[in-house]
Design brief:
Strand content of chain A: 25-35%
Distance between the termini of chain B: 57 Å
Radius of gyration of chain B: 22 Å
CATH architecture of chain B: 3-Layer(aba) Sandwich
Number of domains of chain A: 2
Distance between the termini of chain A: 57 Å
CATH superfamily of the largest domain in chain A: HUPs
Number of strands of chain A: 17
Oligomer: heterodimer
Number of strands of chain B: 15
Strand order of the largest sheet of chain B: 11-10-9-12-8-1-6-7-13
CATH superfamily of chain B: HUPs
Number of helices of chain B: 6
Shape of chain A: elongated
Radius of gyration of chain A: 21 Å
Structural class of chain A: alpha/beta
Number of domains of chain B: 1
Chain lengths: 317, 251
């Protein structure tokens, strides 16, 4: 058994922080930890993983891996797993990570625990905690297939630096053009100076109380002052004030930032499910009985149109 | 073209969850079609309205009561249903095996499903089905076009919108923002009662993942709540943001 593998989530050489979070966590299992990176011209990234404890770095560098595509990535990973026999493979719980891990899991007829918030891996066994019903319930699950597969939620594990040998291993390239069944026609990046909702240390959200785009603008000012991601409750998404990709809650995203500020959000159960695990929660709402106050460390009963701009002024002082 | 939609019956997203004897208590909970699957049903019906599809088959794997989810989809406009009787403790692997067996028999050109279920949040089953059937797949879609034996979709990817094209037959999983599902009309509800629903047993498959235990997250305690003049409240909130939550101020 060749320890735990962490699949590197990167785009155009930019490594997502969740990769380092996974490496740091995997070190705790006491077994060998390897980073596995697929891409074009990605070998130069290898020392980055050694900094977070990777004993080995498997680099599959080929034109075919330039952009993520399920078929080629699955073919390559399946061949590498057969060759090197890792005990477990961890992926980020992202658009690509979920896609990759699910198709791979079925190909290998393996068990996969997705959106994991707590992990414990020993030889031939993974014990994982998953927040299901968008965090209303915690399920502890066990995967005993060979290998154990999991996707890990961003932002739950701490990044710990620790020198690893970072020995570069170059596996045979097993994927061929025949494995590719998806044609990526276009990728239009979201134009936003703000950080990604699920990775941001601070999230500022606006709800029904924003009453419209003007209210959202006020919330945005606070978000930008704090370098925060912008989010919204279902009310502000359904009203069209914000795009669906910014929805926090059971049919949107689950976030767990250091600080969550809810502006004009009453706190429906499905919204609370998406943000209650934030470390600090502040809220501003006109209704003193709003359920959001039950989960808030600091609640302000008041009108966000008055309180939020004044708070921005205070913070600037 | 035949379109098959997989639907899962889930708890209402506004439901408060409680545990009873170590299991998730189901008594008194309103059951709905998983909101992501409901969008897939709507997408399929729209394809029929545009004459791209000529038949919409809705399939659900689960307990007998999942029949309600099928009837709801039929009331929205699907043509017929198949209930795959399966223990609700089936995991994503077993569920995918059971659904894929039925899909293989039905041989549709397009399989639709929600990209994730609002209950277990696994987001595995559609992709697993695609692998079993050897079909290409596209996940988390927000638009879909069919032409010349190919399907092209926009997906809500990380950091942007991705446009992907695959050949049919294919498995496509929906994001909730794809469309706005219709409410079944009274006429639709009446018609749904007469539409055919077959019941089959699930193909045998062992779970690959075991649930060890359920627990409820520690309830977050309410902290300070102030009701003061806006300027006073703002000063206190700003102080808390800086000194307690220790957020950085960018400028």
């Amino acid at each position: 058994m060749a320890g735990t593998w962490v699949f590197v989530e990167q785009k155009d050489g930019n490594i997502r922080k969740v990769t380092f979070e996974m490496l740091s966590e995997a070190k705790k299992f006491g077994d060998e930890v390897s980073a596995v990176v697929f891409g074009k011209g990605v070998e130069a990234l290898a020392p980055e993983f050694a900094k977070y404890g990777a004993d080995k770095v498997y680099v599959a560098d080929d034109d075919i891996f330039g952009d993520y595509n399920t078929g080629a990535y699955v073919a390559q990973m399946a061949a590498m797993i057969a060759e090197y026999k890792p005990n477990a493979v961890m992926f980020a719980h992202t658009f690509n990570g979920r896609d990759f891990a699910s198709r791979l899991a079925q190909k290998l007829e393996a068990g996969l625990a997705t959106d994991v918030i707590k992990a414990e891996i020993s030889a031939g066994k993974g014990l994982f905690t998953r927040a299901i019903y968008a965090g209303k319930v915690l399920a502890k699950v066990e995967v005993t297939t060979d290998p154990v597969l999991a996707t890990i939620r961003a932002g739950v594990f701490e990044v710990v630096e620790g020198a690893g040998a970072g020995e570069v291993v170059k596996p045979a390239i097993a994927a061929t053009a025949a494995d590719v069944y998806q044609a990526i026609k276009d990728f239009v990046p979201t134009v936003s100076a703000r950080p990604e909702l699920t990775e941001a240390p601070v999230v500022v959200s606006g709800g029904r109380g924003c009453k419209g785009p003007d209210g959202i603008k006020i919330v945005e000012q606070l978000a930008d002052l704090l370098g925060a991601a912008l989010g919204g409750s279902r009310a502000s998404i359904d009203s069209g004030w914000l795009g669906h990709e910014l929805q926090v809650g059971q049919t949107g995203k689950v976030v767990n930032p250091n600080l969550y500020i809810a502006c004009g959000i009453s706190g429906a159960i499905q919204h609370l499910a998406g943000m209650s695990s934030s470390k600090f929660i502040a809220s501003i709402n006109t209704d003193p009985e709003a359920p959001i106050f039950n989960v808030s460390d600091f609640g302000v009963v008041g009108d966000l149109f008055k309180v939020v701009p004044l708070t921005v002024d205070e913070l600037k002082k | 073209m035949k379109v098959l939609v997989c639907v899962k019956q889930t708890f209402d997203t506004e439901a408060k969850i409680e545990l009873k004897d170590g299991k998730i208590a189901e008594a008194g909970i309103n059951l709905i079609i998983n909101p992501y699957d409901e969008v897939a049903v709507e997408g399929a019906i729209q394809l029929k309205e545009k004459k791209v599809a000529d038949e919409v088959v809705v399939v659900s794997a689960g307990a007998d009561k999942a029949m309600d989810a099928i009837r709801t989809a039929l009331a929205m406009g699907a043509d017929r249903g198949i209930l795959v009787k399966q223990d609700t403790a089936a995991d994503e692997y077993a569920r995918a095996v059971a659904l894929a067996a039925v899909i293989k028999e039905e041989n549709p050109e397009l399989v639709l499903a929600g990209h994730v279920a609002a209950d277990d949040g696994s987001s595995q089953v559609p992709t697993r089905i695609a692998e079993i059937l050897g079909y290409p797949h596209i996940n988390v879609i927000t638009s879909l076009d069919i032409a010349d034996g190919k399907v092209t979709c926009s997906s809500e990817a990380d950091g942007g919108t991705q446009v992907t094209e695959v050949s049919l037959p294919a498995v496509i999983s929906s994001q909730v923002s794809w469309n706005e599902p219709r409410y079944p009309s009274m006429k639709g509800i009446m018609q749904a009662k007469k539409k055919p629903v077959a019941t089959v047993d699930a193909a045998a498959a062992d779970n690959k993942i075991n649930i060890v235990e359920f627990s409820l997250p520690a309830a977050k305690q309410a902290g300070i709540k102030i009701e003061e003049d806006p300027d006073v409240a703002a000063a206190k909130l700003a102080d808390w943001i800086k000194n307690t939550a220790k957020a950085e101020i960018k400028n």
